[in-house]
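Chapter review: from sequence to fold.
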Amino acid sequence: MAWTYVFDLDGTLYDIGNGYERRCRARVYEYMRDALGCESVARAEEIWREHFPKHNQTLRALRRAGYDVDADAYWARTRGDPSEFLTPRAETRAMLDAIAATGGRRLVFTNCHERQAREALRALGIEDCFDGVFGAGGMGDEAKPSAGAFERFFHAHDVRDPTRCVFFEDSLKNLRAASSLFGMVTVLIAGKTLDEEVRENDVNASSTDTTAVETPTSFVDLVVAGGVLDVDALRRGAARATARARLALGFALDRDS
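The token string follows.
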């Protein structure tokens, strides 16, 4: 049975430090000021930082905070034009092509809306590399890392055995859910998101909230350091990978040096 390879988008298929994520977040604060009546960008940021960690998706967080948000207007305004920041990277495409050669499926699973996710993939030059894109439009009122978001993803793409899925993510929260709830093989892209989640955990060290960051070794099968995902990065993390990660990622790890 072939493996299914599941990729988050932001911070996984491109380096989150390239400025795009920072600009999207700035657009969120501007949208909150201009469309939702926040008195200033600074106040919008305070509200975002209060609510986002509880819900893991800004649209969901704003609605839970009591704002009436038009989803189409929100996604179009806050994601902007990804081609201003995102450009094709040959090494990323080579990795996706290597997966295709194994017969494995390649899917995107993101908290972003599918429309804007495809625009980003197009800017990265890899839209044609994927067999499906699943995001906020298909999740309804769910978002990663909720079990419901994963279940909707599995149903939409006829994933019958999640333990035969490899999940590439930059969020420990999402990887923990994937591993503990569904037995997916997990690959952490260790970058800016990890730093933010660790800081969040430090602040909330006494909290019993299930979204708090835990020691990753219990639910991460392989760590990609440096925030950039490609075959070479996978191979560098192989020495500390679990046996099942080495099995699932043989397309990369078994290559000659």
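Two observations follow directly from the output. Residues 203-215 have pLDDT under 50 and may be disordered. The chain has two domains: 4-17+86-253, 20-83.
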